[in-house]
Amino acid sequence: MKKYIISILTCGLIITATSCKKFLDLKPLDSYTENTFYVDEKGLQGGLVSCYDALQTDSLYGNNMLTLGEIRGDNVTDNDPGSGAGVRNSIEVFSETSANNILSGAWQGHYKAIYRANIILDRAPAISMADATKNQIIGQAKFIRALSYFNLTRLWGNVPLILTVQKTDEARANTRATSAQVYQQIVSDLTDAASKLPTTWTDAQRGKATTYAASALLAKVYLYQKNYPMVVSTLQPIATAIYAGTTLSVVPQTTTFPSGLKTSKDIIFAVLYLNGGVKEAVNQDNRYRNNNNTNTITIPQSIFEAGDNRRALVAPTNIGLRPGKFNSAVSNSTEISGDFPILRCADVLLMYAEALNEVAYGNTEAFKALNAVRTNANATNKTATTLVSQADFRTAIYLERRLELALEADRWFDIVRTSQMPIVFPGIPAFRSIYPVPQAEIDNVTNKTGWQNQGY
């Protein structure tokens, strides 16, 4: 009898211990994990929202991309070298180090977007759903991943090329891929995205990436690679659509920029912010707002023609206020709803004109594309009489891009890719055409050899 009692007690203890272990291992019923969230179409769609959300953050288009793409250039001057321990001012004056937290924030922000896109691309193939919907989800994830890698390689050159969801030990073993390898992957992602995405979305889904967005970004990648024939062939259908004016069109910048981003035909892709949902003090770097005299827009008024309708929107007369270009409607005293444009019809036409001119000077289509932007801005047309050579046309395009795309986080990258850095910033060493890799990222990898960019 004693043996039976001992056996029963032993079994009871084993059962109790096992039950306790199971109880302790229970996951919260109201919390999702990657394994329980990305299991159906609803999960994928929710994950896709998080990809777009990553673009909105202060790390990217809410703040840091404006510093890295504009304040670094010659359109904006930072007047507060002591603010934030000088991290923003050091970027403007070419004295940033690998400890700069704007750089680490941008690096991490882009890889956060890539991580979220990689989860979708990893899980989508096994999920049962309509093929058309699945392809649209995959296309959007690839577009966001491609945009993130495009920015990363423009900012740092060689960067880790991560195409799967990694564990910690795998991430510590990462090495930097060459810029050429990164561009090859970007081209692959955008080519596939363009084939999977629709040309338009319903009003309820406005803001999602389209085939036009994927193709326009693909052409921009080719432009950075100086593959001008591919720029021309990729943009020709989009230019035709812009001239037709049904779905896409250039839009005069007469009020805010460009007359309602959420509905404007000029916008091919923008980072969207909900009406009344973005606080000025938190996001968008206040769009260069200068209430505390921290930023001054330094684009000379003299480079605009007298009747150019873009001049008043970016001219230095806006000191102390947001520039008119981003002066979105105010929902209340502390909130704005201004979206941030990434790809516009005007940008497409200028890329198209530039590539046509690089292929051969004198192409009438090049003048047509350039003049479509200038006419839209109420500037006079350019002709073969005023631009008598390929070099003249090239100079005119570079200036037009500065005028048209001012304050859109493109200026610094244009200066670098067009080899204007020694002219615009004489005496600045060439190695500063890309930024130092954040030291925190180097500290996180096992093999640190070859991680830092030359000169830093």
Automatic annotation (TrEMBL):
Residues 22-223 form the SusD-like N-terminal domain. Keywords: Cell outer membrane, Membrane, Signal. It comes from the Bacteria. Gene3D superfamilies: 1.25.40.390. Residues 290-417 form the RagB/SusD domain. PROSITE patterns: PROKAR_LIPOPROTEIN. It is found in: Cell outer membrane. Its main location: membrane. SUPFAM superfamilies: TPR-like. Belongs to the SusD family. This is RagB/SusD family nutrient uptake outer membrane protein. The lineage of its organism: Bacteria, Pseudomonadati, Bacteroidota, Sphingobacteriia, Sphingobacteriales.
